[in-house]
């Protein structure tokens, strides 16, 4: 019983009350609505008696009682049906809505390490298909189970009233069908898991295909050539067929066993009748009602596939919900200022360490540049500051407080980030900027947009600040998206700014505008900039040179040039590349 309770709790997403109430009312509804049939059977029995037993009186009193019972049933049915209709209309949608919101919040709180393990298709499937399955099954499957229970119990009561021995004979084949149901459940469970995994993979492949459509077009890849999507569609087809095949034979065997029950009823009934202990009319009633008892059992077996699906989907939802967000030890107080300090920090995304024993001092209101070859660990350092991940060893402090003593939300409220890849949501421009600070007024949004040099282009859009942005910001140019993301950061006005050098791949006009926006953003802030072009950070207070996860050098531009190390090498290479580009341009002219 305890196990059933836990299971019920699980499949109702922790809200068993709603489904239990729905089941109860559907049970009552069906029970009450089945009463006229039972009354009819009894009435037919009473009416046939004088025909079969000559001389027996017509049971007028009994028939009148049945009429009264029908009238009472009609009144009760009205109230019960009304209530069960109201409850079924309310549906499980509200529970699922709340559960989806809770999942959204959980996903926001989870560390980025979680996203390294799960891909977008996987999570999309949880949020769309799994919740959908839970909702539809709680709305339809549960009431169906209640209906089956009502019909069976009603049939049992009526049959027992007629003859308990025959009722037992009717029931005798039911245990025989249980092993088939168990085998069916196991097989279906296995095949269903395969099918659901194939569906999930297919979603991932479709997302990948749509997301990468530009690249596919650019390289003239037709869908014929997009093998992984094709393979995934083929796998999905095969698994669907396997699922169908798995359910059919077991279901047929179970039906055969149950049908054999009718033979048992008939054989046993005839034997009792020949012995003179069963009236022929009673036998007729049993023969007519036995199938009524078996049909709900068959329907239940048909539902096994939905039950396994419901089980699987709730398991997947619970798996995500039981992931633990980054822990933090409260009580260390608030950061005093925005100085950042790394002490002997090592970190790896998985088993492979990518930062080795890093120590850094980033004073408040200073500009620090992180430079170094690609893959040297620059972005990883900024992710650790924002607490997207926690360091494997060593400590990171903000304003003297270890980040592990601050909630991820608190850390992020102190940090503004501007990435090269800007993501804009499918919403108005105003809402996209307001993401920087919820509750900011329209004037504040416009002020931030002006400082970020985007006010003019926004005003030139058809609906100004109310213009909808395509998903991922697809209707705006790279430079425009970048400036909107800077406006967001300006609105947030956090004391620490992490900047993945945003101007690296932009045209000169955009570069000037974005540089203006960045200048506005970084005033009186602790700024850490990932610099791809060393020329842009010559004036930084300190430049940290990273190589293969180690701090190789640190100092000002002139100190590092004088030191003749990696920085000087990178600088010389960039100077050479710059003059080569210049020569090419001149030659082209
Ligand atoms: P940089 O910013 O200097 O180019 P990164 O900090 O992005 O370097 O990467 C440092 C190392 O960590 C690289 O070897 C990279 O492949 C690895 N890395 C970066 N992000 C991830 C991730 N999400 N999962 C696993 N490895 C990663």
UniProtKB/TrEMBL annotation:
<dbReference type="GO" id="GO:0034040">
    <property type="term" value="F:ATPase-coupled lipid transmembrane transporter activity"/>
</dbReference>
<dbReference type="GO" id="GO:0140359">
    <property type="term" value="F:ABC-type transporter activity"/>
</dbReference>
<dbReference type="InterPro" id="IPR017871">
    <property type="entry name" value="ABC_transporter-like_CS"/>
</dbReference>
<dbReference type="Pfam" id="PF00664">
    <property type="entry name" value="ABC_membrane"/>
</dbReference>
<feature type="transmembrane region" description="Helical">
    <location>
        <begin position="145"/>
        <end position="162"/>
    </location>
</feature>
<dbReference type="GO" id="GO:0005886">
    <property type="term" value="C:plasma membrane"/>
</dbReference>
<dbReference type="GO" id="GO:0005524">
    <property type="term" value="F:ATP binding"/>
</dbReference>
<dbReference type="InterPro" id="IPR036640">
    <property type="entry name" value="ABC1_TM_sf"/>
</dbReference>
<dbReference type="InterPro" id="IPR003439">
    <property type="entry name" value="ABC_transporter-like_ATP-bd"/>
</dbReference>
<feature type="transmembrane region" description="Helical">
    <location>
        <begin position="168"/>
        <end position="185"/>
    </location>
</feature>
<keyword id="KW-0812">Transmembrane</keyword>
<protein>
    <submittedName>
        <fullName>ATP-binding cassette, subfamily B</fullName>
    </submittedName>
</protein>
<keyword id="KW-0472">Membrane</keyword>
<dbReference type="InterPro" id="IPR003593">
    <property type="entry name" value="AAA+_ATPase"/>
</dbReference>
<feature type="domain" description="ABC transmembrane type-1">
    <location>
        <begin position="38"/>
        <end position="309"/>
    </location>
</feature>
<keyword id="KW-1133">Transmembrane helix</keyword>
<feature type="transmembrane region" description="Helical">
    <location>
        <begin position="252"/>
        <end position="272"/>
    </location>
</feature>
<feature type="domain" description="ABC transporter">
    <location>
        <begin position="340"/>
        <end position="573"/>
    </location>
</feature>
<dbReference type="InterPro" id="IPR039421">
    <property type="entry name" value="Type_1_exporter"/>
</dbReference>
<dbReference type="GO" id="GO:0016887">
    <property type="term" value="F:ATP hydrolysis activity"/>
</dbReference>
<dbReference type="InterPro" id="IPR011527">
    <property type="entry name" value="ABC1_TM_dom"/>
</dbReference>
<keyword id="KW-0067">ATP-binding</keyword>
<keyword id="KW-0813">Transport</keyword>
<dbReference type="InterPro" id="IPR027417">
    <property type="entry name" value="P-loop_NTPase"/>
</dbReference>
<feature type="transmembrane region" description="Helical">
    <location>
        <begin position="31"/>
        <end position="52"/>
    </location>
</feature>
<dbReference type="Pfam" id="PF00005">
    <property type="entry name" value="ABC_tran"/>
</dbReference>
<keyword id="KW-0547">Nucleotide-binding</keyword>
<feature type="transmembrane region" description="Helical">
    <location>
        <begin position="58"/>
        <end position="80"/>
    </location>
</feature>
């Amino acid at each position: 019983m305890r196990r059933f309770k836990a299971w019920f709790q699980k499949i109702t997403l922790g809200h068993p009350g709603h489904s239990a109430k729905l089941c109860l009312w559907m049970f009552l509804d069906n029970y009450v609505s089945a009463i006229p049939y039972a009354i009819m059977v009894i009435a037919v029995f009473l009416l046939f008696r004088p025909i079969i037993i000559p001389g027996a009186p017509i049971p007028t009193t009994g028939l009148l009682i049945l009429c009264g019972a029908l009238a009472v049933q009609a009144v009760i049915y009205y109230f019960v049906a009304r209530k069960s209709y109201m409850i079924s209309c309310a549906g499980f949608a509200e529970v699922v809505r709340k559960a989806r919101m809770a999942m959204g919040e959980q996903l926001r709180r989870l560390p980025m390490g979680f996203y390294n393990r799960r891909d977008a298709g996987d999570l999309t499937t949880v949020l769309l298909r799994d919740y959908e399955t839970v909702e539809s099954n709680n709305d339809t499957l549960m009431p169906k189970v209640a209906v089956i229970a009502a019909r069976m119990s009603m049939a049992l009561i009526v049959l027992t009233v007629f003859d308990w021995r025959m009722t037992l004979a009717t029931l005798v084949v039911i245990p025989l069908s249980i092993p088939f149901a168990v085998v069916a459940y196991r097989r279906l469970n296995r095949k269903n898991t395969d099918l659901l995994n194939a569906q999930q993979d297919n979603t991932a492949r479709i997302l990948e295909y749509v997301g990468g459509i530009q690249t596919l077009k650019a390289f003239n890849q037709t869908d014929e050539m997009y093998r992984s999507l094709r393979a995934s569609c083929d796998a999905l087809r095969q698994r669907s067929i396997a699922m169908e095949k798995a359910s059919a034979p077991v279901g047929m065997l179970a039906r055969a066993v149950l049908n054999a029950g009718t033979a048992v009823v008939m054989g046993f009934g005839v034997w009792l009748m020949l012995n003179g202990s069963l009236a022929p009319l009673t036998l007729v009633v049993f023969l007519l009602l036995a199938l009524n008892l078996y049909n709900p059992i068959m329907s239940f077996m048909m539902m096994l596939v939905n039950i396994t699906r419901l089980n699987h989907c709730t398991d997947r939802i619970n798996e995500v919900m039981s992931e633990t967000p980054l822990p933090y030890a409260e009580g260390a107080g608030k950061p005093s200022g925005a100085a950042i300090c790394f002490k002997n920090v090592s970190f790896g995304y998985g088993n492979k360490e990518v930062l080795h024993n890093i120590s850094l001092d980033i004073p408040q209101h200073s500009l620090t540049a992180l430079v170094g070859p690609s893959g040297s660990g620059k972005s990883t350092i900024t992710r650790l500051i924002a607490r997207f991940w926690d360091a494997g060893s060593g400590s990171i402090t903000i304003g003297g407080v270890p980040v592990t003593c601050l909630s991820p939300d608190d850390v992020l409220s102190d940090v503004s980030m501007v990435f090269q890849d800007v993501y804009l949501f499918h919403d108005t421009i105003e809402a996209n900027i307001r993401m920087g600070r919820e509750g900011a007024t329209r004037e504040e949004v416009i002020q931030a947009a002006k400082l970020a040099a985007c006010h003019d282009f926004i005003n030139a859009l058809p609906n100004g600040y109310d213009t909808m942005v395509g998903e991922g910001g697809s209707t705006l140019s790279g430079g425009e998206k970048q400036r909107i993301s800077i406006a967001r950061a300006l609105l947030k006005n956090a004391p620490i700014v992490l900047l993945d050098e945003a101007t690296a791949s932009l045209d000169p006009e955009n570069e000037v505008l974005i540089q203006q926006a960045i200048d506005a953003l970084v005033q009186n802030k602790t700024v850490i900039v990932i610099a791809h072009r060393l020329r842009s950070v010559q004036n930084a207070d300190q430049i940290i040179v990273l190589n293969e996860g180690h701090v190789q050098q640190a100092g000002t531009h002139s100190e590092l040039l004088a030191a003749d190390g990696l920085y000087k090498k990178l600088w010389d290479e960039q100077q050479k590349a710059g003059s080569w580009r210049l020569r090419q341009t001149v030659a082209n002219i």
